[in-house]
Amino acid sequence: METSGFSDTQLQVREAIAKICSNFPDDYWAQHDESGEYPHELHKALSKDGWIGIALPEDLGGSGLGISEATLMLHTISESGAGMAGAQSIHANVYATQPVAKFATPSQRQRMLGKIIDGTWRVCFGVTEPNTGLETLKLKTQATPSGDTYKISGQKIWISSAQVATKMILLARTTPLEEVCKPSEGLSLFFIDFDPKQPGLELRKIKKMGGRAVDANEVFFDNYVIPKDSLIGKEGEGFKIVLHGMNAERCLLAGEALGLGYAALHKATTYAKERVVFGRPIGMNQGIQHPLAEAYMHLEAAKLATYHAARLYDRSTTDGTITQSAIGVACNSAKYLAAEAAFTACERSVLTLGGMGYAQEYHVERYLRECFVPRIAPVSREMIMNYVGEKVLGLPRSY
Ligand SMILES: Cc1cc2nc3c(=O)[nH]c(=O)nc-3n(C[C@H](O)[C@H](O)[C@H](O)COP(=O)(O)OP(=O)(O)OC[C@H]3O[C@@H](n4cnc5c(N)ncnc54)[C@H](O)[C@@H]3O)c2cc1C
Fold first, then answer.
1. 111: which residues sit within 8 A by CB, 6+ positions away?
2. How far is the CA of 377 from the centre of ligand 1 (A)?
3. I need a surface site. Which of 107, 315, 365, 372 has the fewest CB within 10 A?
4. Taking Cα atoms as reference points, which of 124, 78, 90, 127 lies closest to residue 370?
5. Number of the ligand 1 atom closest to the C-alpha atom of 84
């Protein structure tokens, strides 16, 4: 990847993360993908050196850097060959904590974030539900007040790292949909103990296509009791609050996709220089060379969109002229473009390696399996196009 234009701090982040990741070569990720074993060692190495708190405040033990640096960190992890699995094993701790840092009370921030930064706790992010999918505002998981507690009932799906997390950042309804004026009202954000040994909480692992080192789960709540002060911000304002984490998440996912795309391209160009057929390296053929050059340019363009979005997100804390809508459009567009560029690079990489592209030992088939994730999650390609069509182009709402 071309690194001109990144700040000195960002380049230092990239160098330090690449050094840590060099202890986790491609074979480590291939083995963990095969066995489904969680990459605990990466989380441990990153938390030991304080990286989990890269974008969290210094008074809590974080580094006080921005989502730009966090995006470059996840990008570098993914690019090391760790791919989406490596990035997903830590990313919720980085993005889902953003709304907590911004909207929690000072004592909640102290209690909730310090142990995530030092690696004692891990969080998972609980938004998606089986019966509502991308229609987040219709989600049905209910948090019902009961004395100085809430009782949670409902179901979540696709919750990453739930098998290893001890906390969940949860979006649930506190006012039924039928009783609110707008569907975005009546949702609340909670930071909860996540303990399947307690009554009312069950998990079921989902078998999946790629990134198998990181578990994905169905989560069932049945009158699961949490204390009242698990609530972050005001009751009923959870959607507005969680958007802060969701825009950060889109930047991070864009960075992760870029990393995967650059990793794939590196494998492809290395192979294309070495593999000789018909008396010359296959990379001498324009049929091989041009698609790789095109994939590179798509990655570089998506890189500009990604770090532009992250910069807007970071600058909005001090620059009141940057609107939430501008940030939303930039973060969604970046995630879309990076995911598509990664897909192109991964696909071209498999095709460049020919038969060996299909062999596990060359790793690009693993990258290709993983590169579907940023196209689907946390929001699909189609929903981003719906959003841009309506909110930017002013076309009639299509959904
Ligand atoms: C590996 C992985 C990890 C994940 N981790 C988490 C996590 O940790 N926490 C969490 O909360 N969620 C997580 N998710 C869930 C993810 O965010 C959702 O899968 C994603 O938001 C898509 O929702 P859905 O699967 O319900 O799709 P659906 O809503 O069922 O949509 C299915 C398809 O229909 C299309 N579609 C639907 N409506 C329209 C429309 N009006 N116009 C055009 N197209 C439409 C969609 O674009 C999509 O292609 C994860 C998912 C995956 C695959």
1. none
2. 6
3. 107
4. 78
5. 1
Query: Does the domain spanning 239-392 belong to CATH 1.20.1250.20?
Result: no
**Taking 90 as the threshold, does the pLDDT of residue 281 lie above it?**
yes
Which amino acid makes up residue 325?
S
Residue 97 has a pLDDT of 96
165 lines ligand 1 (CB under 6 A): no
Residue owning the nearest CA to atom 18 of ligand 1: 377
CA of residue 374 to ligand 1 center, whole Å = 10
pLDDT average, residue stretch 360-365: 98
Domain extent listing, the chain:
8-117, 123-236, 239-392
Interval between CA 376 and ligand 1 midpoint (Å): 6
The model's pTM: 0.97
Q: Are 334 and 251 in contact (CB under 8 A)?
A: yes
Domain at 123-236, CATH homologous superfamily: Butyryl-CoA Dehydrogenase, subunit A, domain 2 (2.40.110.10)
Sign of the dihedral through C-alpha 258, 264, 267, 268:
negative
138 close to 239: Cβ distance less than 8 angstroms: no
Q: For 8-117, CATH number?
A: 1.10.540.10
Confidence at residue 1, expressed as pLDDT on a 0 to 100 scale:
87
